[in-house]
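Entry type: protein chain
Record version: 2
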Amino acid sequence: MNAPQAHAAGAERRLVELGITLPPPPSPFGKYVEAVRVGNMVYFSGMLPAVGHDLPLLGRVGEALSVAEGRKAAEMAALSALAAAREFLGSLDRVTAVAKLGIYIATVGDFREHPAIADGASELMASVFGDELLAPRVVLGMASLPLGVPVELEVLLEVAH
């Protein structure tokens, strides 16, 4: 096992150490699947700040929501992604890299604090998988997102065969 794989093997243990309880895995809000594996890559549908099928935070950051609430929404979306990954893979210990993290944020037009919100998702992933498995990320501001959520994540994971 190489160093990143050895580090990733502790993801489930780190969840316990951090006191993180994953929410119920998300369920689709339309006609799609949550994840598909192609080779050693797992592509996930857009991850919303959902708890199961409930959406507790709605609105645009800088309007209905503060930066702190937007950051919390990004963390919630990352927790949903981890729950979906665990359900799909059986264990987060199978993850060998977070290959990509796209963070889409519904904001008002002149908003500039996107990185502070995106860090809510990035920091959670780094806590669980370690900095050496952390992905490059794209952070974009949007006029609106599905169902009125403030954040949607795009997640691509590399997994062990």
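Comment: The helical segments are 3-8, 11-18, 67-89, 114-129.
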